[in-house]
Amino acid sequence: MEANKTAHCPAFNHLMVIIKSGLIGDVVDIEASLSQLLDKNGREFDPKQAGGSMYEEGSYPLLPIIKLMGINYENLNLYSRMENGIDVYTRGVFHYPKATCSFKVGLGVKTEGCLVISGTKGYAYVPAPWWKTDYFELRYENQNDNKKYFYKWDDFGLRYEIQEFISCIVNKRFSSARLRRKESICMAQVMEQFSKRINFFEI
Predict the structure, then answer these.
(1) Whole-prediction pTM value?
(2) Cα gap 16→121, rounded to integer Å
(3) Quick one: which of 120, 117, 152 has its CA closest to 138?
(4) Model pLDDT for residues 168-187, shown as the tens digit of each residue
(5) Which of 48, 59, 81, 139 to pair with 147, CA 20 to 30 A apart?
(6) In angstroms, rounded to a whole number, what is the distance separating the alpha carbons of residues 111 and 88?
C-alpha cells in the first residue's frame, strides 16, 4: 500500500466520484502542479538519495491523472531542467486515446500548485495546495450553475493513510480501492521512464 495522503483523503475521493459520474462531461484534459522551493543543501537535492522533483513530488500529480484516465496511455514525454544531477523542474505530457494530461513538479522552480480537470460540460478547479484537498469547485459556462464543495483536512493527513491501512489489515485486503496496485505500478513505470531518460528532453 503506497503512502499517499491525498489518495486517502475524503475530499479528493469525493472529487474523483463526482468527475467519474459525468457532472463535467467527458474528461479531455488534466493539469496538475506541485512545487516548493527548498534548501539546496537538503536531501531532496542529493542524487545519491533519490533527490529531485520527479522522485520527491511526482506521485502526487500523477494520482488524479491515473485515477481518472487509467494506466493505458499511449505516450509520455518528459521535459526537465537539471542541476547537479537532479531535476529542479519536470513537466510531463501524457497522450491518451481521447485526452491529454500534463503535470509539473519543481524543487527549484515555483508554479501555481492547482489542479484543473477539463470536461466537455465544464471543469473542476482545486486551488493550491490541491494535494491537501479541502475545497474544490465545479465551474460551467453559466456561472449560476457553479458548485462549491467544502471539507475539513485533519492535521497533516496521516490519519487518512493510517485509517485505510488498518482497514486493509482488519478486512484482510491486499489492495485499496483508493489507490490500486496497478495504479501504483503505473506510477513506478513513469518514474522508471524518467530514470532511464526515455522520451526525455532537457531544457
Answers:
(1) 0.90
(2) 16
(3) 117
(4) 667 677 677 667 889 999 99
(5) 59
(6) 12
